[in-house]
Structure formats: C-alpha cells, structure tokens
Write a structure and sequence with these properties.
Elements lengths: L20 E2 L8 E2 L14 H6 L31 H4 L43 H21 L9 H13 L3 H16 L3 H22 L4 H14 L6 H16 L6 H31 L2 E3 L9 H13 L7 E3 L3 H10 L3 H11 L11 H18 L5 H6 L7 H33 L10 H16 L3 H4 L5 H16 L1 E5 L11 E7 L6 H7 L1 E11 L9 E6 L17 E8 L9 H18 L20 H7 L5 H7 L11 H9 L5 H18 L10 H11 L4
Parallel strand pairs: 7-9
Antiparallel strand pairs: 1-2, 3-4, 5-6, 6-7, 8-9
Helix pairs in contact: 3-4, 3-5, 3-6, 3-7, 4-7, 6-9, 7-8, 9-13, 11-16, 15-16, 15-24, 18-20, 20-21
Length: about 725
C-alpha cells in the first residue's frame, strides 16, 4: 500500500489529452505529464523514457497554443494546417512586399505589411483580439486558394519526379503564408495573453479553424496529387534528395491521418468530430485558466511563517498586483508560488487549503466542471480512432510513435512504476520516522498531500544538511539568463543583444537579436563579422491570462522554401521561450526553475539553429520521440562547475555560491526522486489506460479512477 485516500480527478487536467498539470492522488499533484495523446506537451521525465515512449515526453516544455487542438501534429507550436512548417510562404508577385490585405483591410494590423517592423515582427502594440476574426477569414480564403492551385496541377504531365515534387510537395510546404502569420500570433496570444476578450475570440475561432483544417486536408484533387508523387517516390529509385523524400513521406502521412482518403460521408462526420473536439478543448483549458486566474489565498506576515525571503517577496508582489494592501501576501495557483508554499509553510491548515485548490483546478466553480467535458472528449476520440480502423484512441496515437503499440508503452511505464513505488514508500517511511523523532502527530490520516513536500524538505535538510532556500539567492533570474546565453555562445557561437526598441505584447517581455559569432570578437568588428540568425523573445514571469508551465513557441519558423524575390529577412526565425516564474524585486529561482530556463533554451536552439530546406521538417517539427533531445542535453550544462563558478552568484553581494553548498545539493540530488517519478508516471499510466477503453457507453470517470488506482496499489 503506497498511499491512502487517493483520488485522481481528470476534471482538473489541462493541455494534454485531458491534462497538462495533473493531479493524481492526495499526495501526487501537478505532475508535468505528456502521454501518447498530448495536445500540449509539458512533462518531466528522463531522456531514456522519452526515446522509448510514443510521446513528446517534454521536461517542462512546449506551449499551449495548438490552435486547432490537433493531436496528430508533429509541430509543437501550431497545428499542421496553420504552421510555417506546412504553409510557410507562398506569395504572388503583387504581395511579395508582405502587404496582404485588400478591400479596406488596411486598418487590421494582422493583414497589413510588416515590412516597417524590425525583422518583420508582428506589430504587437497595434494588435487587438477583435482583429483575429477578420484576419482569419482573409487568411483561410487565401490558404484554400493556394491549395486549389496545387490540386489543379497535372502531375502526369510533369516530365520528372523533381518537377512533380516542386509543383506539388514543395508548393504545398510553402502554401498559406498569411494563414501562418495570423495563426502564429493568435496561438501565442492564446498562451501568453489570453485575456477575457481573447478567450471569446478563441471560443469563436476554435471550431472554425478545426473545420478549415479538415477542409484543407480534404480539398478535392489535392490528396490525389500528393498520392501520385508519393507513390512515384515509393515505386522507384528517386532523383530526390533524402530530405525531399522524407518531406513526401511526412506530408502523405499527415493527410492519411487526417482522413484525406475517407469517403465523402466519412470526411464530413470526421470534420464534425474534430470541430467539436476543438470546442471542448478550448472550454476545458479556459476553465483551468479561469480557476488559476481567480483563486487566491490572502495572508498576513504571521501566516507566512516558515517561508523563505524569496517566497515572501514573491507573495508580496502578487498581493501588490492584486491591490491587496501594503501588509498582505497572496498565494495564487501559479506553480512558482503554490509549490514553494507547500514546501515551506509551517501552517498545515493553510497548506491544506492551497493544496486542495491547486488539485481542483477545473472544478472550483459548478459552472466550470471539466469532468463532463473530459467524458465527451473521450467518446469523440474513440470515434475518431474508429475511422482509422483502430480499437482505441491509444492505438491510433501510438501508430506514428517509436513504441508503436499501447502495450509497449504500458510495459515500460508499469516497469518504471513498480520500482518508483518502492522508492517512494521508503521516502514515506523516512518522513514517518522524522515525525516520531520531532514528536509531530498528524492524526489518523498521517502524511497527507499537503504534508509531503513540507516534510520531505525537512528530512532532506536533516539528512543532507541542505536547505534549498539557501541556494536561491545565488540563482537570480538575471544571472541565470546571463549563464544560459553564455553557454549558448560557447556551444553554438550565438550572441544575444537586448533590443529595447523592438515591439512586445507585454512590458515583462524581453527581446534579443541573436547573431552567429563569437563573444571574443572585438567590439569594432562584431557587427561586421556576425550574421543575424534569429530573434529571441523571453517571456519569463507568471501573470494573469498566461497559461501555466513553460514552453517554446515561434512567431515564424525557419525555412528556405521561399518564393523568388522574397525578402530574405523572412528566413530568420522568431523564437519565444515562455516561463512562469514568480516576479519579485530580485526574482530568485530554485535550482529546478533554473534548469527549466536552460531546458527551454534547448528548444530555443532547436528553432534558432534550424537549417532545413523545408518548413515541414524544420525547427521542432520533428518526431515526438526526438524533440526533447536538445532540451534535455541543454539542462545538464547548468550544474557544470565552470558555469556555477561564474554565474551562480549572490544577488546582493555577487559572491560565488559556496562549494560546500553545491556539494550538499549534489549529494541530495536523488532524494525524493521516488515521489517525483511516481508523480509523472501515475498520470501517464492513467492517461494510457483511459484511452485504451474500447467502449465508453456506460463509462463513469470517477469509478474508472477508483478501480485503476486500486489496481496500481494506490488505495
């Protein structure tokens, strides 16, 4: 028996198939989990697990702006019919100056030329939620016109496979420039600036965009031409490059997984399912965001007993933002506030209150019950899988993943689970022994969910003489940002230049020009020797209307597949890293938060250093089994001695972090890892099992959870 009184509430899940930050039991909460069904990937796991699982098991990664809620996309920024990867840049000669609006649309900044903006970035200060509906109407029409032109190509009249490829596949890869431009801003706003006005637009647009996706994939004649090229490549040795062959294969698979080969009747029904799923997912995610936005625990200084100075400062900042008075402190449901509060607060009653709210996102109001939404989504996904001849949605999702079958996934997860459960039980026993030593009596229930982090930290301090709060002053956001950019320079020769004059969508956002070169070059020669390779947008702070978690996204992806005479500036990607650190006068990060920042920069490198010919294969638009490699590798540079010595410095004195403190941290590195592994594994197991069900006609989510938790030894 590992845990008592366990409850798992999928009505709280957000941004993966049913959840992004998942509550699994009374002790195991907000695990960053992405399973085979992820719509948005934010997880913590090992690189080995990432390679073996059919998922994008991303450690604290990726964004929340897949605007069409399409679980089949290999793009983690946007859905497949609205990405630079697949519709990057097709412009006629009369629109190559990037002025794409007509018929009086010049007042809409999403439709006007961005040629006067640095790097043709979006004119953020001008963009309002009300601009998106009109812009999408124009963009969808233009996108379909591009695709209709490809559908009319007489492939059999082409003299060579190269000509066929260029006329159909390459043209498809760059189709829909305006659609990509509008959707990239829209998707990022939905993740980072999803105000009530923006949420109304999102609710309106989600089903429309889903139907546009379906229409784009099923346009008469388009798949026929793609199939002709594909079959020609498969049937004979090709003159195409390996990259071009890969592009043909991936685009063909995209179409088949979107039902392009279905009968007309099935296409219509499939489109209805996708549109309804998009609506439900939008409602689901907005319910969670609303709970995160509105819930607050207003406290006094006395209530904050046990909390370190860094948390006090962050809670004071949150109180000031919410106009709570000079003496107030506020804990919100932002992970950067609630998790440290659960770790350090001496007030068990307040920890319980915060914990229960944190684990109930999506059900804090009767009007926002995600349980019913989740059940509807499960039934729709089962129907979706059935169109592809699959018994379950799990089977459908695993087909294009390394593991191939749900059974392979479950075998790995259950193997990890059993071992982690043993370790977690030992950790629990250590805490119970500590309670006896100090004479604490928690009553009949013993250690509850709101106690685990608190007593785990006490045991770690007693066992290893390591207090993580003592480490925080050496990891200010400013110094960690310096560190990650210095490592980026040493590894890849990238130099970051902060630009105050570039447009942003929020005052907290910092924008950099990124140059390829060495920091050793002299100041006089840098500008002449270096080449701009990207624009990097850093959005680091938690705030209202911003999704929780951390992710990388793009406002423009790298591609070389541009029409003739296109402005070369459009080759330069616009890459964004998004975090959710609690803002303070001196924003201090935990070591895990610092690692998150390094991790996301790994994804940022993937976007900034992409050198693909075709957008569909560029940047992070790779197989889910691979996408975490750059980020996982980047994480490990944080704790290298030379990095810590140079950049882990006290925010007030600039003194380097003491070596004995680092030694204690490393000694305690494996502490509580049983709990950490249980935390994400249980979510993945539940998600996998949930989506292997073949008949939901008498399905009850609560009953399913109880039975599955009992099977796993959680009750």
């Amino acid at each position: 028996m590992f845990l008592k009184n366990c409850t798992l509430s999928t009505r709280r899940r957000s941004y993966s198939l049913l959840w992004k930050t998942a509550t699994t039991t009374t002790l195991l909460t907000t695990a960053h989990v992405s399973t085979a069904f992820s719509l948005y990937t934010t997880t913590t796991t090992t690189a080995a697990a990432a390679a073996a699982l059919p998922t994008a098991f991303a450690a604290r990664s990726y964004n929340n702006n897949n605007i069409i809620n399409n679980s089949n996309s290999n793009s983690y920024s946007r859905g497949p019919t609205v990405t630079a990867q697949m519709m990057s840049t097709t412009m006629s000669e009369d629109t190559k100056d990037d002025t794409v609006c007509k018929d009086g649309s010049m007042d809409n900044p999403l439709l006007m030329s961005w040629s006067d903006q640095p790097y043709q970035m979006p004119p953020f200060p001008l963009i309002q939620p009300g601009h998106f509906s009109e812009a999408f109407d124009v963009a969808m029409e233009a996108h379909l016109a591009d695709l209709e032109g490809i559908a009319k190509v007489d492939v059999n009249a082409c003299e060579s496979i190269v000509e066929k490829f260029e006329s159909v596949i390459a043209a498809y890869d760059r189709a829909g420039a305006l659609m990509d431009r509008v959707s990239s801003v829209y998707g990022n706003f939905c993740g980072s600036l999803n105000t009530p006005e923006m949420q109304k637009v999102q609710t309106e647009m989600s089903p429309k965009l889903a139907r546009h996706t379906s229409k784009a994939y099923t346009l008469p004649g388009l798949f026929d031409n793609i199939k002709l090229v594909h079959d020609g490549v498969v049937a004979a040795e090709s003159e195409l490059t390996s990259e071009q062959v890969r592009l043909v294969q991936r685009i063909y698979l995209d179409f088949t997984r979107q039902g392009a080969h279905f009968s007309e009747e099935d296409k219509a029904e499939y489109a209805d399912i996708k549109a309804e799923l998009a609506e439900l997912m939008t409602q689901f995610s907005q319910n969670v965001m609303k709970d995160e936005e509105t819930w607050e625990l207003v406290l006094t200084e006395e209530d904050m007993a046990g909390c370190p100075d860094s948390l006090l400062e962050a809670a004071r900042g949150a109180a000031a933002e919410r106009s709570k008075g000079d003496d107030a402190y506020v804990i919100t449901l932002s992970r950067s506030l609630v998790e440290p509060f659960l770790t350090y607060s001496d007030r068990r009653d307040l920890r319980e209150k915060a914990f229960k709210a944190w684990t109930s996102r999506g059900e804090l109001s009767p009007s926002r019950d995600n349980l019913k939404i989740a059940e509807k989504m499960l039934k729709l996904r089962k129907r979706q899988a059935g169109f592809h001849g699959c018994k379950s949605f799990a089977e459908y999702q695993c087909q294009d993943r390394m593991a191939k079958t749900p059974e392979n996934v479950m075998e790995l997860l259950e193997n990890v689970w059993e071992k982690a459960k043993v370790s977690a039980n030992k950790e629990r026993e250590a805490m119970e022994e500590y309670l006896v030593e100090i004479g604490d009596d928690l009553g009949e229930g013993g250690i509850e969910g709101w106690d685990w982090r608190y007593y785990a930290e006490k045991v770690r301090k007693a066992k290893y003489d390591f207090d993580e709060s003592a480490l925080k002053p050496y990891f200010s956001l400013e110094k960690v940002t310096e560190a990650v950019m210095a490592v980026s320079n040493k590894l890849f020769g990238l130099r970051y230049v902060k630009r105050e004059n570039m447009p942003t969508y929020h005052p907290d956002v910092v924008t950099y020009e990124v140059f390829k070169g060495s920091s050793d070059a002299s100041e006089e020669t840098k500008e002449h020797e270096e080449t701009p390779v990207a624009v990097f947008i850093h959005d680091n702070y938690a705030r209202a209307y911003k999704s929780s978690g951390a992710w990388m996204s793009e406002y423009r992806s790298q591609t070389k597949n541009l029409p003739p005479n296109t402005d070369e500036i459009l080759r330069i990607p616009l890459v964004s890293n998004n975090n959710n650190f609690a803002k303070g006068k001196n924003t201090l990060l935990s070591f895990d938060d610092a690692k998150t920042l390094f991790h996301e920069m790994g994804h940022g490198h993937h976007g900034m250093l992409s050198d693909a010919n075709y957008g569909r294969l560029a940047s992070t638009n790779v197989l889910s089994d691979f996408v975490e490699l750059p980020s996982q590798l980047m994480e490990h540079w944080l704790d290298q001695p030379e990095v810590l010595k140079e950049y882990a410095r006290h925010y007030a004195t600039n003194e380097p972090v003491p070596e004995d403190l680092i030694a204690k941290m490393k000694a305690a590195k494996s502490f509580n890892q049983g709990f950490a592994t249980i935390e994400y594994t249980i979510c993945a197991l539940m998600d996998m099992k949930l989506h292997q069900i073949e008949d939901y006609s008498d399905f009850n989510m609560s009953e399913f959870e109880k039975k599955e938790l009992a099977r796993l030894g959680m009750v």
